[in-house]
Design brief:
Blueprint (H helix, E strand, L loop, with lengths): L1 H15 L7 H55 L27 E2 L9 E10 L12 E9 L4 E8 L12 E4 L5 E6 L3 E8 L2 E8 L10 H9 L2 E2 L2
Antiparallel strand pairs: 1-9, 2-3, 3-4, 4-8, 5-6, 6-7, 7-8
Length: 232
């Protein structure tokens, strides 16, 4: 504060006398007097200024460090650096084989048994649609398997198709917990639940252990469907 006050006093001094007419000799004397006064002030107070300077530099560096640390924490919180499977409980074998097919897709995070292995069992390119045949790829079907020692569930993802295009035996229209419309089929050998999410049609397929007897209840399959989360 002393240095700032003195600066104000010198400015005030110069302001009061700026309109006074002086001879060249008087101007020179006043100038030398002013210079000497400033030198005396700097010499006398140099010790008090230096610690303030060091203190200011320390405060500045500390402030910069705190700001950079804050940006680093925000970056870690906003960007997941551990890969697409970091928030998903199942590691999918051969997941790189479908790289580039879809920007995002979902897979179940909960199943009615302890999963020992999960992977991709089937990938198919569609070169025809319900409208026309073509040499260009119209879409994909990708099938995932989730297995334990005695049980399995197949999850199929397919684009270019909706539940309106699917028919089967013992059809039942149901609604998932988020009000998504779905359709359930049971053909005596397998249970299937289909629904649409964005441009992808999802299905859960389970084989029965006893012919004609459902392995899981419809509610069990709905619980699996409700657990789907974005994998990548």
């Amino acid at each position: 504060m002393k240095k700032d006050n003195r600066k104000f006093e010198w400015d005030d001094h110069l302001t009061r006398y700026k309109n006074v007419r002086l001879t060249e000799e008087e101007k020179e004397k006043n100038y030398q007097k002013l210079v000497n006064s400033i030198r005396d002030m700097n010499t006398k107070d140099s010790r008090s200024y230096r610690p303030q300077t060091r203190f200011s530099v320390a405060v500045l560096l500390t402030t910069i460090f705190i700001i950079l640390s804050g940006f680093l924490v925000m970056d870690v919180l906003l960007h997941d650096r551990s890969g697409p499977t970091s928030s998903h409980p199942f590691e999918i074998k051969n997941i790189e084989s479908i790289e580039g097919i879809w920007d995002k897709f979902k897979l179940p995070t909960e199943l009615p048994f302890e999963v020992e292995e999960a992977g991709i069992s089937y990938v198919h390119e569609h070169k025809s649609s319900y409208i026309e045949d073509t040499d260009e790829i119209q879409g994909y079907t990708v099938e995932f398997y989730f297995i334990s020692a005695e049980q399995y569930v197949l999850i199929r993802l397919e684009d270019g198709i909706t539940i309106e295009n699917i028919t089967g035996r013992n059809e039942q229209k149901i609604v998932l917990s988020d009000d998504t419309e779905a359709v359930y089929f049971f053909n005596g050998a397998s249970q299937m639940l289909f629904w649409d999410d964005g441009d992808i049609n999802y299905s859960i397929q389970v084989g029965t252990e006893i012919e004609g007897k459902e392995k899981y209840t419809i509610e069990d399959l709905i619980n699996i469907a409700d657990s789907f989360q974005v994998y990548k």
